[in-house]
Amino acid sequence: MPQLVAKQNREGLRQNEEKWTLALLQAGWSMIPNVILERQQALELDSVDVNIILHLVRHWWTADKLPFPSKRTIAECIGLDPRTIQRHIAALEKRKLIERKKRSDKHQGQKSNYYDLRGLIRQSLPLATEILEARKKRREDEAERRTRKKPRFKIVPTG
Questions:
Q1: Which of 12, 30, 73, 130 has the most other CB atoms within 10 Å of its CB?
Q2: Over the stretch 92-145, which tens digit does the pLDDT of each residue have?
Q3: Which residues contact 37 (CB under 8 A, 6 or more apart)?
Q4: Half-sphere exposure of residue 113, counting CA atoms within 13 Å on the CB side?
Q5: Collapsed DSSP state (helix, strand, coil) of residue 83
Q6: Ramachandran quadrant class, 21 (left: phi over 0; alpha: psi -120 to 50; beta: rest)
Q7: Measured between alpha carbons, how far is 105 from 111 in angstroms, rounded to an integer?
């Protein structure tokens, strides 16, 4: 079984290399669940919010190490003023999608905040469940259509 998983992972990587090129993937890549993009209106995310989330995810590599990009770094990447980023982050925090956690160093003092995205995950889970249930229902309906007996028509000769 582990060999099958490893083979599937290699095949997935090759597919991504074909789509994006090896050079782009080697330069860095991020993973984000589609539900966050597909259901951004339901999550009340505007394009700047989604862009900020993408930048937070870009810096989040393991579950136990929260991302901590500075507002200035995000602002420079997006092409907006750091104050705009700060307002959007405050709004995301107010809606409990993200949580800022102070990060400091005893020698350097206050540093960029950690960002906890568990609120976004928590609020996205019901939307993911809806998508999965709809997908399951579609598969069941398709299977039923394929197995449904078709009416037989008797050909009656005319004349």
A1: 73
A2: 999 999 999 998 888 888 889 999 999 999 999 999 999 999 999 999 988 888
A3: 50
A4: 16
A5: helix
A6: left
A7: 7
List helix spans (H) across the chain. Answer: 2-20, 22-26, 34-38, 47-58, 71-78, 82-94, 118-147
Q: Are 121 and 129 in contact (CB under 8 A)?
A: no
The domain segmentation of the chain, as residue ranges, is 32-139
SS3 38: helix
Token reading at 94: 């107010």
Q: What is the pLDDT of residue 4?
A: 63
Residue 50: name the closest of 66, 32, 67, 62 by CA. 32
